[in-house]
Amino acid sequence: VAILRLGFLRIARISTTLADRVRSAAPLTQGGSKNFWSRALICAMTALVSATSSARDIAVDIPAVTLRDARNQPVALRDELAQPGPVVVQFIFTTCTTICPVLTQLAATAQRELPALRVVSVSIDPDEDTPARLADYAQRHGAGDGWRFLTGDADDIVAVQRAFDAYAGAKMRHLPLSFVRASPGRAWTRLEGAFTAADIVDAARAGDVALGRRLYRDGVLASGDALVARAPGGAVLRGANAACATCHRTSGYGGVEGRAFVPPIDARSLFDAHEPRRVDRFRALYQELLSPEAMTRLRAASARPPYTRATLAVALGDGIDGAGRALEAPMPRYGLDDADHANLAAYLETLSAQPAPGVDDKEIHFATVIAGDVAPARRDAMLAVMRAWLKQRNADVARRIARPPNPAGYEEDLPEANRAWTLDVWTLNGAASTWPAQLETYQRERPAFALLGGLGDGDWRPVHAFCEAQRVPCVFALTDVPASEHGEYSVYLSGGLPLEARTLAAHLVETWHAQRLVEIAPRDAAQRAASAALRAALAGTAVPLPVDVAGGDASTVVVAWGDAAALRELPKRLAAFGAVERVYVSRARAGDAVAAWPAALREKTLLVDRYAPDDALPHAFRARAWLRSHGASGDDEAVRLATYYVMSTVEAALGQLIDRWSRELFVETIEREAELVPNPGPYPALSLGPGQRVAAKRCRVVGFEDGVKVSGR
Ligand code: HEC
Questions:
Q1: C-alpha angle with apex 144: 143 to 150, nearest 5 degrees?
Q2: How much distance in Å is there from the Cα of 248 to the middle of ligand 1?
Q3: Other Cβ atoms within 10 Å of 246 Cβ, number
Q4: How many A from CA of 342 to the centre of ligand 1?
């Protein structure tokens, strides 16, 4: 009802304006138009019919026609419209006395507001509108440089109108339209009806979200040049160092960096009216070390007016915030031109504006991926811990919801955060090349907010690629082969076999004395990845690349990446090798196989070990107690402990999202929590930081018998 009423008000206002104009125009009109009143009436009626305004983006294929301007010079329309900068196209005729003068005045007002705006007015009455008449019309309306009046061949003019879908059959039926394009290559905005000069300016300034995103994240301007900013104190920041994401983070939610508080600049925080919520400041106020100035500012935070594009420009250029306060260090100052500012503002208007898929009023939905041929015992170990965790967590949520809120606490702000967790198991079968399609089907059917844990028999790259392409966080897959390319959305628990291979290479270089290096031929994807990483790390060192042939006199050093089943057979195979000096195996993959080897061979065996020594992990006891009391202990304890860590980190991070359902914020929070959550094992020294993607980076080479550290980092 409100909208309808508004529509009527607008129509009433327009019709009186038009009536006034018609009346005032009457004495000025001399001779030229016999049927002035009927024309005026038709024009006014046309305007009335469409008195509410609309704006929509359209694609226009400009015809290759050559028109004539008011000085009778030829103008190739395509070239004219391909010039850089914003442009508005209107269809007019000089003897139209209502719509056309109004349109022309709107364009003039818009051009005064935005001097870079070029105007192209195309006559739809070319028989009447000679260049001389257009020159006269231009002069009457005070049109200066940057405004073209065009006439031409009647067929060409119709072709141009058709291209803009503006051809009404006869000039007397023509509609109040303007076509605005912010820059070449962008869509045209079709403004129709009772639009204003401000609507034209807005459309001409409409930013390009993709270019704004690049400016925000990478510090690259629309021109391709580096973004430049002036830091407080005078230093000049360039490119990625000047990018907003450097401080405000990819999510836009900012956070505490060093001892400074970087405020959120997501769409809601900047452009919606809201009171600052205590719950959003809780962590910064009570759990972080802030400088006294940052703390004072944070305590004093009060509502400021929502930003507009104009006040945002003042904040970025002059460092004055929406409430008139000077922005303090380290917020830099930016000198952006209109187009770059519009791009950035358009991006900020979308930043974290929508809750991520996978979250509804009551639930947060997760999935875990079982990729390929995973041993059932490992799969069961991971799922048992996840299910026990969900059961406990959801019981807690139910209790919290049932309990009356404590007015002194923060709980009144928290019901949003109290959502149950659900978990689907996404099993991938068949060739790895078909996994992306399988993942997309799962995600389409029931989108997951994030993927938790996950097990694979080797090639994790398709899952990694899916997470990056769909922007789904992929948190700590328990894979031996993390993808080697850096992802934004995938974080890994351990560097896996490639990390072991690099550690082994360093150890071999250190201890090498001209033996022969033999590698048992890799059998599966994980072994191949380890082998490739070893070769890459040995290239250019004194250690020759490994061969896989037996025999000869030189003492032999053997590398075997096999799993427990393969390693149980190894002593038999080694009998053919002659003088074996050393055997290297992966502790994580060997399981209990080496324990069953003859003692003489065990003594020659070194383990490449990315696990932490048991006694280095006091929290293992706590985790074991939890697993037992929740019916989740059993075989494959390493998988269980790792899953326990995954779930604790996810819970700690989600608790801080409150109701900001941003996947980017989730990943950023995991980066910080990884080091703070108690580490139950099996990996040592788990920690991430901004942009870091592998939590356990340490690995060592130890004797099988004594577990004494031989080398490593
Ligand atoms: C070097 C770190 C840094 C960079 C880079 C940075 N900012 Fe800021 N920004 C800050 C800090 C710190 C504040 C808080 C200053 C204060 O409150 O006095 C801030 C405040 C703001 C505010 C005011 C928020 C409010 O609630 O009033 C806006 C808007 C803003 N930044 C936008 C941006 C944009 C857009 C960019 C990129 C073009 C950017 N910032 C780049 C650190 C940074």
A1: 65
A2: 7
A3: 19
A4: 17
The token pair at 147 is 């405004």
Maximum C-alpha span of the chain: 117
Q: Is the pLDDT of residue 64 over 80?
A: yes
CA dist 713 and 700 (Å) reads 6
CA separation for the pair 599, 605 (Å, rounded): 10
Pocket (CB within 6 angstroms of ligand 1): 244, 246-248, 260, 262-263, 265, 270, 297, 304, 315-316, 321-322, 327-328, 330-332, 334, 344
Q: How far is the CA of 86 from the centre of ligand 1 (A)?
A: 29
The CB density around residue 354, as the number of other CB atoms within 10 Å, is: 9
Question: Is the per-residue pLDDT at 400 higher than 60?
Answer: yes
How far apart (Å, rounded) are the C-alpha atoms in residues 291 and 339? Answer: 36
Output the six-digit token pair for 124.
Answer: 């739809």
Are 455 and 382 in contact, with CB atoms under 8 Å apart? yes
| Spacing of C-alpha 47 from chain mean position | 43
Indicate which residue's Cα is closest to atom 35 of ligand 1.
244
Among 253, 265, 280, 343, the mutation site with the greatest number of ligand 1 atoms within 8 A of its Cβ is 265
Nearest atom, ligand 1, residue 328 CA: 18
Specify the residue for token string 């170990």: 381
Burial of 118 (0-12, 13-18, 19+ CB in 10 A): buried
Q: How far is residue 199 from each of residues 55, 180, 194, measured CA to CA in Å?
A: 9, 10, 10
CA pair distance 266, 248, nearest whole angstrom: 9
The number of beta carbons lying within 10 Å of the beta carbon of residue 3 is 7
Distance from residue 205's CA to the centre of ligand 1 (Å): 23
Distance (Å, whole) CA 543 – CA 518: 12
Q: Which of 248, 270, 299, 340 to mutate to test the pocket of ligand 1 (most atoms within 8 A of CB)?
A: 248
- Among 25-39, 379-393, 458-472, name the one with the lowest average pLDDT: 25-39
Ligand 1 center to residue 261 CA distance, Å?
10
Straight-line distance from the first to the last Cα atom of the chain, in angstroms, rounded to the nearest whole number: 71
Q: How confident is the model over 630-665, as pLDDT tens digits?
A: 999 999 999 999 999 999 999 999 988 888 999 999
The CA 506 to ligand 1 mean position distance, Å, reads 44
